[in-house]
Fold this sequence. Notes:
Elements: E1 2-4, H1 6-15, E2 21-26, H2 29-43, H3 49-52, E3 53-57, H4 63-70, E4 80-85, H5 94-103, E5 111-116, H6 128-137, E6 139-143, H7 149-161, E7 164-165, H8 168-178, H9 182-196, E8 199-200, H10 203-209, H11 214-227, H12 230-242, H13 247-268, H14 277-281, H15 287-297, H16 302-321, H17 326-341
Parallel strand pairs: 1-6, 2-5, 2-6, 3-4, 4-5, 7-8
Amino acid sequence: xxxxxxxxxxxxxxxxxxxxxxxxxxxxxxxxxxxxxxxxxxxxxxxxxxxxxxxxxxxxxxxxxxxxxxxxxxxxxxxxxxxxxxxxxxxxxxxxxxxxxxxxxxxxxxxxxxxxxxxxxxxxxxxxxxxxxxxxxxxxxxxxxxxxxxxxxxxxxxxxxxxxxxxxxxxxxxxxxxxxxxxxxxxxxxxxxxxxxxxxxxxxxxxxxxxxxxxxxxxxxxxxxxxxxxxxxxxxxxxxxxxxxxxxxxxxxxxxxxxxxxxxxxxxxxxxxxxxxxxxxxxxxxxxxxxxxxxxxxxxxxxxxxxxxxxxxxxxxxxxxxxxxxxxxxxxxxxxxxxxxxxxxx
Length: 346
């Protein structure tokens, strides 16, 4: 079975030696549609798409119709292409499995069929039979989410195409604010580029127009607490409450940030240093979290971080057994964390 990840699919597109059938799935929706489009546009000249490119909605398509279209000879082109979105390949029926098995080896050298599962709900285990059949005659492409530094280069490239310069540090800030869904990142970057007009993008541009994730807002709240800025921390908390974010989620995110800081502080004082954190605590793809933790931990002593973790533990116990206002528990916790950050006794 020929299997591709994103890097291998890129190399394959450069060689233009196409397989008769492709299955594209994975948890990054933008990439799946992007590469299905790249494949189809490489297979069929855009000038002759109307004659040689067919697209089907797999939810309402019979598999026989797909192969009937694939059997038609190309016109004014060397190949034709059939793209099928979201065909029911999970728990594939016996009749469809037999049809796939019978039809795929008969595809002519002039035809390419692309099955693309556009949502992230495709279950690889339940689709094992279809994957096995398609893999015998073509390529199975699993496109997973880009993580950490894998996101930076394409974001910089996308900004450049919009006449903007996106410094790597600012690109990482955008990821921290918006999250790692590439489709969302590209959309938010377009908004930022439109706002900036041209030239270098700054963090201020991102703060002005990008829609931040809940995690980014909680991270902003934590940084305000570490810096001793109660007014900002309280404003962020009010925003989170107005968004009906669960206090337990807010507390959990704050705890995660302080734990990252504690690990960074301890690791920085060890012989192995910060590099030891990634394999020990599975930060692969989340290296930016370590970088932020190192930065934030530099502002507070290790003993104070321990005191903060004690207060966070007490707040967690209160929330789990509290019958009153959960927001009040968070507010009281914030006051204690601010006092600790300023070197005062709680």
